[in-house]
Automatic annotation (TrEMBL):
Keyword Membrane carried by entry: yes
Protein's cellular compartments: Cell membrane
Annotated transmembrane regions: 25-50, 62-79, 137-161, 167-185, 247-266
Naturally occurring in which organism (per UniProt): Psychromonas marina
Protein name: Long-chain-fatty-acid--CoA ligase
InterPro entries documented for this protein: AAA+_ATPase, ABC1_TM_dom, ABC1_TM_sf, ABC_transporter-like_ATP-bd, P-loop_NTPase, Type_1_exporter
């Protein structure tokens, strides 16, 4: 019933997480034999009560047997509860660990993964898929294991007591099994569709909610509603089909149970009248039938739950096997590179070419330049010319470049991210601010950055003044993504953040968004300060900022078309000079 490459593989993965909690798992499993013994004792005691005591009119020990029956029943309940409690507990702990491991993995996935996958899909892996496993899988598997063992044990016992009556039960087993396997496969397919349409629906919702202002502004509500309705309809259709299979199976098995009980009463009564069967055995059989058929009926819903979980496992596994950026790469060890990478000396691009994926065109072609300690390089060029891509390669966001990038003489692709990030501070265009204090947003929770250093960074980038004027100063709490700050203030915080992180090389991707003239002035001053005393590689959209940088690289469609300082490039009267005269802010 389980397929080796899929289901068993997923189970193995799950047990990897459950291993840590084997004490409670073992306690739960230890209850199984007791549960089986008590459920076998019950029909045996019924036979004793009816055949040995009631029918023969021996009332002496009858009360004892009634007491034994009640005791067996009570023990059976306690044992079953202990079994279920401990195994569910194990499962819940394992799933909590799995959730954390998955989240940690997602955080380390390469940027290319996020480029290609809508965020909503990843979100639904981390939420609804894990929930499907947490809520249903453990519960269903715990029930399924106990019920299966119990049913087999009861059937064996029934065979020993009366094989003819047991045969009545066994005859109906094959069609039940066949139907269960058939429906199992149908349900699996339906559940995959429901989960994937749910994931896409969540992805779409997330996109729309992020851009809700645009939707409202352009009155695009109807189109968006229609698109969401399509996801919803697809989800509903798959769910309806899954429900239909579930219901048909449930009804079929309930019917089979009733028919078998009727058959047994008819056939058994004949045997009792012919005196080849005792009344006690017939009653014990009818009583036990429920215990065999109720689990068989429940198997179907347990199997449906397990199907849902396996579909969710399959999705989650996709994340677990998603290759990490550094998987399969030959990296130098920290011991080998640490002495050479303690202090930044030199970064060299030697004929570097790069494309985002093998099927896309090159966005960097044969790029060469050198950044020495204490110098500044500015990258300019039209939109899409490859400036940010250069920064991304240095930050190791992407790694499959051609040519050579040497950091202090070591090939960058052979150095792990952890071994080189301390050298760089990055200020990106798309600033992300957390719903936390300004202090947190500057230090990013890094305990090595003291309160004094945070404030020093604030002063360094001229952000201190406006921060001090906010209620609570550095403890002022930002709204989600800094919506209670102005655009320019957001940029200044991001500036302070990159200074506080203390990298020896500042990589700046200057924001293009316009800000008020006072803040603009502060940003300019902060940039000039950085340019005058740090090693900088900057993408500058305001050409006035970079006129004092040592080298200006002009990029056009991924190629360096001009290289030199401001004076040299102005004298050349080429592209840079053209850009300069276009720029209203350049003088
Ligand atoms: N993740 C990506 N996947 C595929 N192509 C990409 C990706 N990011 C950027 N590109 C492409 O690479 C080229 C260079 O982009 P890049 O962001 O480096 O340009 P840029 O010069 O920084 O532009 P801008 O000034 O607008 O920020 C563009 O053609 C862009 O479409």
């Amino acid at each position: 019933m389980l397929n080796y490459n899929g289901d068993i593989y997923y189970l193995k993965n799950f047990f990897r997480f459950a291993k840590k909690y084997k004490a409670s798992a073992l306690l739960g499993i230890a209850m199984l034999p007791l549960s089986i013994i008590t459920s076998l004792l019950f029909p045996w005691l019924i036979i004793q009560v009816i055949d040995v005591h009631l029918v023969q009119g021996d009332m002496d020990d009858l009360w004892w047997y009634i007491f034994y029956l009640l005791a067996v029943l009570a023990i059976n309940y306690v044992v079953d509860a202990t079994y279920a409690y401990n195994l569910r507990k194990t499962g819940q702990y394992a799933i909590t660990d799995m959730r954390s491991a998955l989240f940690a993995r997602v955080l380390k996935l390469p940027r290319s993964y996020f480029d290609n996958k809508p965020t909503g899909v990843t979100l639904s892996r981390l939420t609804s898929d894990l929930e499907a496993i947490g809520e249903t899988f453990v519960q269903a598997i715990v029930g399924l294991v106990k019920d299966s063992i119990n049913t087999i044990a009861l059937l064996i016992m029934m065979l020993f007591i009366n094989w003819q009556l047991t045969l009545v039960v066994l005859i109906v087993m094959p069609p039940v099994m066949y139907l269960t396997v058939y429906v199992r496969n149908r349900l699996r397919a339906m559940n995959l569709i429901t989960r994937s349409s749910l994931a896409r629906g969540i992805g779409f919702l997330q996109e729309v909610l992020l851009g809700v202002k645009t939707v409202q502004f352009y009155r695009a509500e109807e189109q968006v509603e229609q698109k969401y309705k399509n996801f919803n309809d697809e989800f509903l259709t798959a769910q309806k089909k899954a429900n239909k299979y579930d219901a048909v199976l449930f009804a079929f098995i309930s019917g089979i149970t009733s028919i078998t009980i009727a058959l047994m009463i008819w056939y058994g009564s004949g045997l009792v009248l012919a005196q080849t069967l005792t009344l006690g055995v017939l009653i014990a059989f009818i009583n036990t039938l429920e215990k065999v058929f109720v689990p068989i009926r429940d198997f179907t819903s347990q199997i449906a739950a397990i199907q849902r979980s396996f579909a969710a496992f399959e999705h989650i596994e996709e994340l677990f096997v998603e290759p990490m950026e550094e998987d399969g790469r030959k990296l130098l060890s920290t011991e080998q590179v640490a002495p050479q990478l303690a202090v930044f000396h030199r970064l060299e691009f030697k004929n570097v070419s790069f494309r985002y994926t093998p099927d896309l065109p090159y966005v960097l072609k044969d790029v060469s330049f050198v950044l020495e300690k204490g110098k500044q390089i500015a990258l300019v060029g039209s939109t899409g010319s490859g400036k940010s891509t250069i920064i991304r390669l240095i930050a190791k966001t992407y790694q499959d470049y051609e040519g050579s990038i040497l950091l202090n003489g070591i090939e960058l692709s052979e150095v792990s991210v952890d071994d080189c990030t301390h050298l760089f501070s990055l200020m990106m265009q798309d600033v992300y601010l957390f719903e936390e204090s300004i202090r947190f947003n500057i230090a990013l929770g890094n305990a090595d950055i003291s309160a004094a250093q945070v404030e020093q960074a604030g002063r360094y980038v001229y952000a201190d003044n406006f921060i001090q004027n906010l209620p609570g100063g550095y403890d002022f709490c930002l709204d989600k993504n800094g919506t209670n700050l102005s655009n320019g203030q957001t940029q200044l915080i991001s500036f302070a953040r990159s200074v506080a992180q203390g990298g020896q090389v500042m990589m700046l991707d200057e924001a293009t968004s316009s800000v008020d003239s006072i803040t603009e002035n502060l940003i300019q001053k902060a940039m000039q300060r950085l340019f005058s005393d740090k090693t900088v590689i900057a993408i500058a959209h305001r050409l006035s900022t970079i006129r004092h940088s040592d080298t200006i690289l002009v990029l056009e469609q991924g190629e360096v078309v001009e290289k030199g300082n401001h004076q040299q490039l102005v004298a050349k009267q080429g592209i840079y000079a053209g850009l300069l005269s276009e720029s209203t802010l350049s003088l």
